[in-house]
Write a structure and sequence with these properties.
- A six-stranded parallel beta sheet has the order 2-1-3-4-5-11, sandwiched between helices. Strands 7-6-8-9 form a four-stranded parallel beta sheet, with helices on both faces.
- The protein is of the alpha/beta class.
- The termini are far apart.
- It is built from eleven helices and twelve strands.
């Protein structure tokens, strides 16, 4: 750093401010310092910086599945938000969501030197009394029902599902069938519960749900069953990928969408506008979920006692061409 300072004709403190991205340095001085760094092949020592500051500028992310679109988009949003705040991300996938695996993941992240941890936990792991996250490091949990014990950030799953069902009922459908997600998924449970409650509020008995595993193939299999029911005129699918498989099954069985059957999805994936027909769906703001997760752990690093509770990110209905009034209306 002293060599860079001498070559650039500035103080070592100025070199430090430039290398750490701090303000208070003119653009001309910043260019002088950066040119000197390049000429001398100087790079800041992140390990020494971490020892001096007591932080590593790295966030750990533990996730139990990289196969679901929601987790992938949440992870992408976290990485983008972390980079904007000057933090790197260390990802640690966990194959089996058990207490031993959780403890092992935290231990490995400790060895990799992280300042805080974000856990993307779609399953009901934290609902079990025997499972907890190790103390001593700031933690934010995404997509969980553990707000009484941890800081949780999630999409308003129930609100989005209610909007989907109400949209179909407002079009005149006498009931709404549900293509549900996996039983062990917190998000799937919230969406299914809201579907039932919304029908009950309208004085309607919910038909039996058909369950998938988030994949388009499972939506196709469920769609083959629903296509055989002439009383099925409206379906709320728990995600867009299952809705895609459902659309294929209805097409193959000669049930036109939306003239005979209306379909609403959930997620608003980029491809949903290109489905045939374009899919009416519930938009999730994954970017905001990621931003709030990063904001939460950074706040936790500055606060000695984390505050439990759940922050819900609002959803919105995106109306396209897969929904219409039922036949005869």
């Amino acid at each position: 750093m002293g060599d860079v300072a001498r070559l650039a004709g500035v103080s070592a403190q100025t070199v430090s401010r430039v290398s750490n991205g701090f303000a208070g340095v003119t653009e001309e001085t910043r260019r002088q310092v950066l040119n000197a760094m390049r000429e001398l092949d100087y790079r800041p020592n992140s390990a020494a910086r971490a020892l001096r500051r007591g932080e590593f500028r790295t966030l750990g992310v533990i996730t139990f599945s990289l196969s679901t679109l929601g987790n992938i988009r949440t992870l992408d949003a976290i990485a983008t938000s972390a980079a904007r705040e000057g933090y790197a991300v260390t990802l640690l996938p966990v194959a089996v969501p058990t207490q031993d695996e959780v403890n092992g993941a935290f231990s490995r992240l400790g060895e990799l030197a992280v300042d805080a941890v974000i856990v993307i936990m779609e399953t009901h792991l934290l609902d079990a009394a025997t499972v907890s996250l190790p103390p001593g490091i700031p933690v934010v949990v995404a997509d969980s029902d553990a707000g009484d014990r941890y800081t949780v950030v999630d999409t308003d799953q129930a609100g989005g599902a209610r909007d989907a069902v109400r949209h179909l009922l407002d079009l005149g459908h006498t009931t709404v069938w549900h293509l549900a997600g996996p039983e062990d998924s917190f998000a799937a449970q919230r969406r299914a519960n809201a579907w039932r409650a919304t029908l009950a509020e309208a004085g309607l008995a919910p038909p039996p749900p058909v369950r998938g595993d988030w994949s388009a193939e499972s939506g196709y299999r469920a769609g083959l069953l629903l296509a055989e029911r002439p009383d099925c005129t409206a379906v709320f699918a728990a995600n867009d990928q299952m809705a895609l498989g459902l659309l294929r099954a209805l097409h193959e069985r000669g049930r036109t969408v939306p003239d005979e059957v209306s379909v609403v999805g959930f997620d608003d994936i980029p491809e949903s506008a290109s489905f045939l027909p374009p899919l009416t769906t519930i938009h999730q703001d994954f970017a905001e979920v990621g931003r709030l997760c990063v904001e939460g752990v950074l706040t936790g690093m500055r606060r000695p006692t984390p505050e439990p509770g759940t922050t819900l990110v609002p959803t919105r209905l995106v109306s396209r061409r897969s929904t219409a009034p039922p036949p005869g209306r």
